[in-house]
Design brief:
Number of domains: 1
Structural class: mainly alpha
CATH class: Mainly Alpha
Helix content: over 70%
Oligomer: single chain
CATH superfamily: 23S rRNA-intervening sequence
Strand content: under 5%
Distance between the termini: 42 Å
CATH topology: de novo design (two linked rop proteins)
Order of helices and strands: HHHH
Length: 109
Amino acid sequence: MDLVDGIYKLTKVLPGEERYGLVSQMRRCAVSIPSNIAEGKARGTTKEYRHFVQNAYGSGAELETQLEICVRQNFVSSEQAKEVFALLDQVVRMLNRLIQKLSPQRSNP
């Protein structure tokens, strides 16, 4: 949820012309991460939970790309994006660990 807050704060400084472009897309991606986790957990099976966590992980990858575009287009400075990049990195690492934990354990022959 801290990542969502950070994205909303960061996107407030993007140009108005990006309201329906990057701003909208970045906010949807950020909101999608905790939403997918919650929906997956509510499904009740490990397989479905893992699937939704993988979707959240994909949204994190999309968001990373969009953040990089914002920096490259000089909509925000690297310094302005630094905190959000750090939060995103932390979230993606946690999602990766969760996916590993939820994955079926393969037995060695």
